[in-house]
Amino acid sequence: MTVSRNREIELDVRIGDVNIRGAKVNLLQIPLTEPFRISLGTVYDYSGTILELKSEGPSGFGEGSTIQEITGEAPTAVYETVIDILLRVKGNRYTGLEDFLDDIYRSIYSSPTAKNAIDIATHDLLSKSYGIHATTFLGGGLKAMATSLTIGLGSVEESLKSLEKLKSVHVRLIKVKVGKDVEMDIRRIKAISEKLDGRPFFVDANQGYKLKDAVKVAKVLGDTGGIFFEQPLWKHDLQNLRLLRMQSSVPIMLDESISEPMDVIEAILTESADMVNVKLTKSGGIRKAFKTLVTAQSYGIESMVGCMIESKLGIAASLSLASSLSNVKYSDLDGFHTITKQPFLGGIEYKSGINNPVSGTGFACTPVREIW
């Protein structure tokens, strides 16, 4: 475990009546308990940029943890971009959160993970300054939500071993990673489905299939009781996603295809999605993710809020978002389970398949200073 980079910045940024005096930016690398294997690649460490925004009162904390095959950002790039964005807004005055975050979003093209770290930290700071939980700040209420837990890529035997491990922590919803070898994936799905003991499951291909193979997997999912099929094809291949949807007996959920409100509208117009998965990291933060979910809600589309490999802070922020809109029917917020040492305590508590929010102000997370 290392703090590979860190920097202190003077800011003097005012958002409404809250003055941000400065910031501390850290890049952390922490080993995982086991490799995280998906069709896009394998991750061995948590590499996250942790941001502290310092006011004249409380500090607000944010996190940016990327899988670069999804967001296009390497961990070191996230760290440097957070610093660059903060220096761009140094000394500025903003009427409120929307004004500030609009400037953050416009400051640089793309870079959603870096923007997410700033967005989370700002939500944490403002809600602490007003003495309320961030979920209340978003208009939601503190509530526990079941989360899926993940079986990564591997052999049939490895998958069944992972399933037994998840059962031991009372998992309620299973996610199965697929997308590399369709015949192996089909064998794994069939074997897992026979051992679920009534638990619901879905699969996530992370864009790994071509249409003909996705059709095969969709048929197996229909036969084995899968509840939906997440991101089976390349994120921009909406026409073939539409064709798959027409041939599938299970709903098609888009994940990597959905980063902003216009993506939801395009998915609706092309008839390529039944459901969407919204993540803070893809969206560039809570504010834009909220707008994306509201857009889905306006079309009557059910949603899931997901995550990357993140600490309890990132998961608590995602749970706050998920608790704020009624069309969020599922949460996939298990990203902290395999980090060997947590940079934050509090935020959420996992018990018997459910993430329970911790009461307090902001995201109710306490930094573990000896780590960073």
Describe this structure in words.
The protein is α/β, with parallel strands linked by helices. It folds into 2 domains: 2-131, Enolase-like, N-terminal domain (Enolase-like, domain 1); 137-367, Alpha-Beta Barrel (TIM Barrel), CATH 3.20.20. The protein is 37% helix and 29% strand. The chain is built from 13 helices and 18 strands. The chain has helices at residues 68-71, 75-89, 97-106, 112-129, 134-137, 156-168, 182-193, 211-224, 238-247, 261-269, 280-283, 286-298, 312-322; strands spanning 2-15, 18-38, 41-55, 59-65, 93-94, 145-146, 148-151, 173-177, 201-204, 229-230, 252-254, 275-279, 302-306, 328-331, 344-346, 348-351, 354-357, 365-367. An 8-stranded parallel beta sheet has the order 7-8-9-10-11-12-13-14. Strands 4-3-2-1-5 form a 5-stranded mixed beta sheet. Helix 2 (75-89) crosses helix 4, helix 3 (97-106) packs antiparallel against helix 4 and helix 8 (211-224) runs parallel beside helix 9. The chain is globular, with a radius of gyration of 20 Å.
Give the SSE map:
Elements: E1 2-15, E2 18-38, E3 41-55, E4 59-65, H1 68-71, H2 75-89, E5 93-94, H3 97-106, H4 112-129, H5 134-137, E6 145-146, E7 148-151, H6 156-168, E8 173-177, H7 182-193, E9 201-204, H8 211-224, E10 229-230, H9 238-247, E11 252-254, H10 261-269, E12 275-279, H11 280-283, H12 286-298, E13 302-306, H13 312-322, E14 328-331, E15 344-346, E16 348-351, E17 354-357, E18 365-367
